[in-house]
Design brief:
Number of strands: 0
Largest sheet: none
Shape: globular
Bound molecules: (4-amino-2-methylpyrimidin-5-yl)methyl dihydrogen phosphate
Radius of gyration: 16 Å
Order of helices and strands: HHHHHHHHHH
Helix content: over 70%
Number of helices: 10
């Protein structure tokens, strides 16, 4: 089993996760008022949970993946600073925001991944980032005030990071047991569903 097989074998949910009406709204400049800001604040809270997940991944990573995982962690910390800057520009308060139930469910998945095998952990991390890159690529180039966000999440550096995660997940899957492969596939599916549901926080989707 490879990462590409996971996407091809679960094409429908992957499409729902990466081609969402929220993203159409970003591309066409047709988002309802407040939808982008609502999503942005929730995504900031998501990145905070991601930072915890990825920092715990560092001591669990094989030596060969440590530089990749630590690089990703450092980039996430900068990303938080970027969100804080954008929130300030847009007059949004990050401190008082409550986590949406979908965001809480995503946090629960990150927590439960701590007890799963390394192939499941790295496959999940790759899926989180690949879904995000594919989704923003589908929103490209983005209309008006949203264009800078689309550009920020579709840079060649981010695409390179996602490719490196894919290689790391493929290496882990190549050596995984049958149970670990099943666990990795389940984790992939959980990520894909949550990615779809996360866009739906702000704009209802065609799927669930
Ligand atoms: C990412 C994100 C990308 N920021 N938000 C969601 C809902 N999914 C994926 O992850 P990261 O860790 O911010 O690059």
């Amino acid at each position: 089993m490879k990462t590409q097989t996971l996407i091809e074998g679960h094409e429908r949910i992957w499409r729902e996760a990466t081609e969402h009406p929220f993203l159409d709204g970003v591309r066409e400049g047709k988002l309802p008022d407040g939808a982008f800001d609502e999503w942005l604040v929730q995504d900031y809270l998501f990145v905070l949970s991601g930072l915890v997940f990825q920092s715990r991944l560092v001591p669990r990573s094989p030596r060969a993946d440590q530089s990749l995982v630590i690089g990703g962690l450092a980039a996430l910390e900068s990303e938080l600073g970027w969100f804080e800057e954008k929130a300030k520009e847009r007059g949004l308060s990050l401190e008082s925001a409550e986590r949406h139930p979908t965001n809480k469910a995503y946090g629960d998945l990150f927590t439960s991944l701590e007890d799963r095998s390394y192939p499941a952990k790295i496959t999940a991390l790759w899926a989180v980032e690949e879904a995000y890159l594919d989704a923003w690529t589908n929103a490209s180039p983005g209309a008006g005030e949203h264009r800078e966000f689309v550009e920020h999440w579709t840079t060649p550096e981010f695409a390179g990071y996602v490719r490196a995660l894919k290689d790391a997940a493929d290496s882990a899957l190549a050596e995984a047991s049958e149970d670990e492969k099943r666990e990795a596939e389940d984790s992939f599916l959980e990520v894909a569903r949550l990615e779809r549901d996360f866009w739906s926080i702000a704009v209802p989707g065609d799927g669930k």
